[in-house]
Amino acid sequence: MGNCLPNSTTKTTAEISPATAEPTSAVTVKLSWMCKSANEEHGRELPMMNGIKEYIKSIGVMDSGACSEELFTLASRFKSLQMMCKAHFEEEEKDLLPMVEAAEMGREKQNKLMNQSLELMRGTHSNVCDFLLQGLTPQEAMQYLDILMNFADPNFISSFICQQAIVD
């Protein structure tokens, strides 16, 4: 899963010169770097998340009297994960968003890219969307939803949110 964009979208970001068979624009290079970087960065927290999951399982089988220290340790692990995720999103805002803007995608292309990303998200990890929103402050959750509503198809977003409500 090395690509984060379908081939048809990647082809539209830059034209290929027939003589050299190489991109005539640095946009494709930047996008492929962003995809590789995104895959590496998003997988960085998986070991910590799996460790937390296993730790929760081990706490569940312990005696109820001996859990206070383990719960404190679990809380500190959650705090570490929260800090890592916060740093990750700040880094994306600082580094990746200017690159996307530098690619000079028009509003229509941004909307198409956002809808493709959301479709991929719905197919791969839509079951953790509620977990993500619950981890945000109410103001941050509203900002997140506002961004989605501004860039994505409102019908798709409403069906995505309604799907989450039905599942719960």
The separation of the N and C termini measures 30 Å
Mean pLDDT: 68
In one word, what is the shape? Answer: elongated
Into which percent range does the helicity of residues fall?
A: over 70%
Oligomer: single chain
Structural domains: how many: 3
Q: Low-confidence spans: pLDDT under 50, at least 5 residues?
A: 1-27, 164-168
How many strands, which pairing sense, and closed or not: the largest β-sheet? none
Number of helices: 8
Please indicate the percent range of residues in DSSP E strands (runs of 2 or more).
Answer: under 5%
Radius of gyration, CA atoms, in whole angstroms: 20 Å
Structural class: mainly alpha
Order of helical and strand elements: HHHHHHHH
The overall strand count is 0
Describe the SSE topology.
Layout: H1 7-13, H2 26-43, H3 46-60, H4 67-102, H5 107-125, H6 129-135, H7 138-151, H8 154-167
Index terms:
about 170 residues; 8 helices; elongated; Hemerythrin-like domain-containing protein
Structure write-up:
By secondary structure, the chain is mostly helical. The protein folds into three domains: 1-43, no CATH class; 47-105; 106-168, no CATH class. Helices cover 77% and strands 0% of the residues. It contains eight helices and no strands. α2 packs antiparallel against α4 (67-102) and α3 (46-60) packs antiparallel against α4. It is elongated and about 60 Å long. Mean pLDDT is 68; it is low at 1-27 and 164-168. Residues 1-20 are annotated as: Disordered.
Give a brief rundown of this model.
This is Hemerythrin-like domain-containing protein. The protein is mainly α and 168 residues long. The chain is built from 8 helices and no strands.
